[in-house]
Amino acid sequence: MPSSIAIRKPHIGLSDPAEFQRPLTFYAGIVRQHLAMIAVLSIVLTALVVLGCALAPPINVGSALIAIDRQAAPETIGADRLLTTGDDQFMATQQNLLQADTILRPVALRYNLLERENQFRRYSFWRYSLEKERAIRNAPIALKRLKIERNPNTYLLTITYKDKDPQIASDVANAIADSYLRNIFETRIKEGGRLTSSMEQQLLDLKQKMESKHQALMTYQRELGTADPEQKTSVLVAKLQSLNTESSAAEADRIIKQAVFREARDGSLAAVQVSGQSSDLTKDVEKLQIAKANLALVAATYGDRHPEYIKAAAQLDEARAALNESRLNVSTRIGVDYRQTLIRERMLSAAVAETKQQVDDLTSQSFDYLQLKHEADAAERVYEDLFAKIKQLGINSELQNNVIRLADSARPAAKPIFPNWPLIVALSMAFFSVSFAVYFVSAELTDVTAKEAGAVEQALGIPVVCALPRVKDVHLRLALGPEGMHFAGSPWSSLQDGFFDEGVRHLRGYLMLSSLAKLPKSVLVTSALPGEGKSTLALSLAMVHAEQGKRTLLIDADLRQPTIERLVRLDPDAGVAAALAEKSHWRTAVRVVSAHPNLFVLGSGQPLPLALARIGPGMRGILDHATKEFDLVVVDSPPLLGCAETLELAAATDVTLLAVRSGQTPMKALAATVETLRRINVPIAGIVLNKSAIAGNVAYKAYCRYYTAVGSA
Description:
The protein has three domains: about 30-195 and about 400-410, no CATH class; about 230-400, Helix Hairpins, CATH 1.10.287; about 450-710, Rossmann fold. By secondary structure, the chain is of the alpha/beta class. Strand 10 and strand 11 (about 595-600) form a beta hairpin. It is elongated, with a radius of gyration of 66 Å. The chain is built from 23 helices and 14 strands. Helices cover about 60% and strands about 10% of the residues. The strands form three sheets. The chain has an eight-stranded mixed beta sheet with strand order 7-14-13-8-12-9-11-10, sandwiched between helices. Strands 4-5-1-6 form a four-stranded antiparallel beta sheet, covered by helices on one side. A two-stranded antiparallel sheet has the order 2-3. It has helices at about 25-35, 35-55, 85-100, 100-110, 115, 130-140, 165-225, 230-265, 270-275, 280-300, 305-400, 420-445, 455-460, 475-480, 490-515, 535-545, 565, 575-580, 585-590, 615-630, 645-650, 665-680, 700-710; strands at about 60-70, 120-125, 125, 145-150, 155-165, 405-410, 465-470, 520-525, 550-555, 590-595, 595-600, 630-635, 655-660, 685-690.
């Protein structure tokens, strides 16, 4: 085995290429790569949309405009108000009212709108039963083509109806507006009449109640004897306050005089002297003091036998008698004054109690009077207010026509709103183009197959030798003739075929020039899964090598599904299977291609049961002899995953080439194949990407420019 071929170990962990962060140019490149497909698909689907729209009936719109004059709308009264104070609530109410059954049913019956909207059909070919139709007719009317909109920040409502007939569309919109206005007008008239009748009856009841209250009030005034009980109550209250003041003063005076009376009654001279009646008593006391002083002076001067002394003693007795008499008189006057004060206090207390009772009685009567007067005044106010409301209701009924009005009636449209061809084509093209672009980009990002050479090399650590394009005329190109490999088909196919051949030549040069010490004498071409182009690659590599004048042997070792003989159009004969079963020698089964004397083919031959069991040691023996007789032996083998003999074939050859179908081989399957070969120390020369989308490949672009220039020279 050549030791000069460098084999890098695969990475331990595989990274999904979709997880790499790429620049915007990468996504632009994906879109540019599929631009033709995106354009074709978008044009086709847009044409289908246009065709569908052309087959569909046109749609015409009729619009009527209703104006609501909220500034001039008078406020109505009653339990149910026709207009609310909130603008938004009112406009929302009118929008819902326009879609009510009472508004739509007359219009739907008049123009047979349920039939026109196909509401009696579940599908175009299936009509509902008669019972179902009857239920739909009796149910609340709902028009699918009707739309009620409120213009923002306005008091305008737009009634829009769609129909294929422009006249019907405008007539239905106008009819709905008329039905709405008529319903509003009739409702208000009925409501106004009901409220008027109710108010008139209430007015009569209030009038009778008001008259009875006034009569009761007059009767009560006569019973009280005054027209204003409140004034009389005020006088009595003032009198009561005055009597309370006098009674309090009399009580205080009585307490003072009672204290003096008790002191005088007990005989205390000092208590008698402090009373208001002691003016004479004071004089008598002074006289008594003078008489005592005179007696003492006479006694000291003349003695108690002298006539002056007797005269002074007589004067002292007279003074004492006068003092006692005065003291008795003062005590009598104090008693009389105390009794008068007590009587006055009792009389004032009785007057206060009597006046208080009068005030209480009058207050109670005044409360009843005020309540009766309040009821009479309230009845009068309600009567006057109700009378004014009745007059206002009459004015409201005359002004109701100016609150909601038809601002603009619908007219037949000059052209339908559908189909709008420029808009349909533009939107369809834009939608489908963006959708397919997103699809291809997302498919590229979520693709976990071996597709890009750089991603494969980074994930596995094995070089991608070349990327070969998809070729449509493989069988024709591989039919061996005197001209060898040639271009066929369209110029585009010729360019692709040419790049395919150049890629195979590049692969042959890579194998031959990868080592200066020893060239590989045998190459195994295998793949991870079936259908990845390994047989075509093996045949193409053998043909390119034979064209260089080198003796080349191509062995078809795929005993399960042999392909080489079919590709070179040779009849099945003895081959590898017979040689492995030791029924013939392998040299006798080798056939030379007449057009290419240096190309020899050893087919698989007829299948034999023992061939697969002996393929390991048998192929080693064949390869040992074949590598001595031929410059290069190319072996086509079965897919490695699922076929055990491929490992023995890989161990018997010098190097192994892995054929990978770009965009279809899962990275996990390819990684498992590489890991399996690495464990048995099989040298992997590289990976070949078959059926690769090379339109964006730099090498392919350079080749196309060069090839076109050479062809035109």
